[in-house]
Amino acid sequence: MKITKANRRNIVFCALAILILAVCFILIAHFSGFQHEPKEFRTMLKTLLFVVILDLLIWEPIRFIVLAIDHATWPSMDMSYESDVGNKPTLFAYLKTRLKSRRSEVLITDEHRNEALNQKYKRISTDLILYGSFFLTLLLIILSSQDQSLYYATNMMNRLFRLDTPTTMGLSGINFQYEIYTFFSLTLVEAFNVNNSDYGYNGWYAMEQWKMMGAIRLRQLRTPSKNVGTDKLKWDNKTYAPEWKLPYKRLHYRDRFWRVFDPFTPMDVEPSFINGLLLNFDHLGDLMLYPELGGYMALMMRTQVSNRMQVKYLHAYKWLDRKTVALFMDFSMYNADANAFTILTLRVENSPFGTQLTNVQVDCIRILSGGDHLTSYQTILLAIYFILVLQFIRVLGKNLWYDPASIKQLWNLVDLCIFLLNVFLLILYCVRELLTNGILETVQTSTMEQYLGVQRPLQLHRLIDITLGLLITITTLRLWKVLQFASVFQHFSQTVFSAWKATISLGVAIIVILMGLGIALAVPNGNNALVCRHVVHAIITCLWYSTGYSEGINPNDFFHGGVIFGVLIFLTLVFLLGIILLNVFASVIYDYLINTGKILKEKGKTEKISFWQFLQVEYGELVRRYLFCFFKPKKYYRHKRTVAENVAMELDRLEYNELLRSRGRYYKPKRRLTDEEQQADYMRRVHRVISLNAVLEVQLDLLERYLFGDEYGNISTPPGSDADTDITKWGKPNLRK
């Protein structure tokens, strides 16, 4: 065969690619080898992924822009088309192509020739592959990042600091303000500074696996007035002398002595963009909202003697008094065995009644969850995720590039939101990685008397979880739109669309009744029942109890306003709301489901083929090729019989099996076809017989030319005959009839 210019160019490119790969493998084997440590191997994979993403997102668009500018500025003359004479087509190639076309016509009937419907199904199949794989990858990433052991750590820490133990005091035991100093001494000083003779260091009495990172930060929020119970409080930010006295006097030995003088000065926060973005939030307390940035701070020393002296100093100079609104105790612990950080925020609120309201907030996260700590499974998922994100961006960019006005469409806006959420998620991961590296450097260089602020990575961790939740929600919504080809999803969507007025009207009625019952329940019972202490809690209690969730709700809480009134509320919740209105709601939805089903059944008759029939024709050949690689086709065995005898025996066997099945218990006879359906089935059979006849003719012609033709498939004809089968002369073979 003659080597053409195009083939020569392809051979050169292939040889150059093989040469580059061989040189790269030789250099890798010489300088790095093939056996690496897991950390080094992950670093290499991250570098490779980073280079690929950098090339696809930055260098490739830059190259495209440069080539576009060059072509627009200095347009070159288009090369004239030169036919490839050396690549002469043969009859065998033509007949094989014609055979494939005839085989396709066996599957393609008149119902498959609706081009608009085919284009619609084609878009559905493309979107289904893209959004389905993206949704499954997101779901697997979320499942792989969740660790149930963190739940047990959170639950355990909550119980340890909330309940009393034989050696420590829990926050639940604090009823008055003076008991807070006892909690300091027993739980935060003595329990965390127990001499361990076996290991020779100070550890935590409860569990040796958990080590405190940095010092404990005590932060209190104060008000200048003595009216703690007012709705709008002004936070105090003045600098006081010990015992909260004014005027403030700066002592000459304050900078050279230990930090017992700091509790009377307001907390100094470094102004930065990250601090203002991540730390500018409020804690939701039982009484009001408390800002994170503000208050008076005291850092506890790490040695036991220093802590005792510091607690004694705070107690002697009345650091906690009537003007103290809330006290926060912040510290963090790390477990090297589980690679888990625990950030604890213990809150004590000073109520207007003099009692203390306590709360324990525990957050267990894996801050050290970067590329060096990822498993192989998580690394593969992240690589697939990046590839799918790039594919998603390419499809979205192509659609908006060729049709910019389509950005106003609703589902294109949803795609744009998915793209922006992915970019925002990537930024959050990068910022969290930078903050985590900063914390690790702080741990290496700082002393144990410095406070380790992990609130910023914690806020980023929460924000990442929220972003992932929003992303998978919007992706599910987009996938729901793609799945509208199925009758089940169409049925549900059409029902919701047609019944939205009735459902909203009935929902408003239920909400009004719930609000009325909640207010009626909160007024006489709010001072005596925990579930009715607020109108919002009472409304939620009514909703829970009416729908059957009675866990934690005692019916006696309804009878503090009198037995008759409680019985009326109880009967209204159970019968009017729980039985009548909810059953009416279900009945309305059921009626709309039946009506929508009839409409969709009539609409389905207009569409001649379903989505699955389109897939069988569109991707049937591809599936058969892959199945042929794994499963060998069945061979035909004659068993010393002719083909007609084997066909007759097979038909008799099928008829006998049908007879046995018809005598079965669960036999359902087939629906009788209408005249139109019988005519359509008859035409479909005729079309298939004609297509099979054409396939057999092409196969016979191909076999004849293999047996009696030359190397190009030409059959010699007698002299003087008009038949000429040279494809180069006529463009196509003159098939014998």
Number of helices: 20
Instruction: Specify the structural class.
Output: alpha+beta
Strand order of the main beta sheet, please? 6-3-7-8-9
Average of pLDDT: 79
Let me know the largest β-sheet: 5 strands, antiparallel
How far apart, in Å, are the first and last alpha carbons? 33 Å
Tell me, what's the shape? Answer: extended
Low-pLDDT windows of residues:
196-201, 723-737
Strand content: 5-15%
Number of strands: 9
Q: Mind telling me the C-alpha Rg? A: 39 Å
Question: Could you name the key traits of this structure?
Answer:
5-stranded antiparallel beta sheet, 9 strands, alpha+beta, 737 residues, disordered C terminus, extended, 8% strand, two-stranded antiparallel ribbon, 56% helix
